[in-house]
Design goal:
Blueprint (H helix, E strand, L loop, with lengths): L6 H10 L9 E6 L2 E7 L4 E6 L6 H15 L4 E6 H6 L1 H10 L16 H6 L2
Parallel strand pairs: 3-4
Antiparallel strand pairs: 1-2, 2-3
Length: 122
């Protein structure tokens, strides 16, 4: 998946990478037999990007089991839908920052390193 991310995963990675939000994140981090889309050890935060497939009853059941297992690693899971990223990226960024266990403010530091162009090319 790291070699073939979705467009919305690319957008979120551009925001998270290089400590753009003041926190180090990794892509495709393993938790037992499961792989999280993005993970910050410092914040104990997993970010999952959910596409349309996550709306099916079977996938929701799988995600619940998966989340329970990942949460045993003492991490918080934040699920973000593709539509949220495409339609309200500013709110998604605030949602990510709000989920940090330690306070953080953008304080003038920009997260936008071409992310707008990533979004418009989808």
């Amino acid at each position: 998946m790291r070699k073939n991310p979705t467009k919305t995963e690319e957008i979120i990675w551009e925001i998270l990478r290089g400590k753009n939000l003041g926190v180090k994140f990794r892509r495709q981090h393993p938790f037992g037999r499961y792989i999280a889309d993005f993970y910050s050890d410092e914040q104990k935060l997993v970010i999952e990007i959910d596409g349309g497939i996550h709306e099916s009853a079977k996938q929701k059941e799988y995600d619940e089991i998966r989340d329970e297992i990942i949460q045993k690693y003492s991490v918080k899971i934040l699920r973000i839908k593709n539509e949220e990223i495409k339609n309200d990226l500013e709110n998604v960024i605030q949602k990510i920052i709000s989920s940090f266990s330690t306070p953080f403010s953008l304080g003038g530091k920009g997260w936008d390193r071409g992310t707008s162009s990533l979004l418009s090319s989808s």
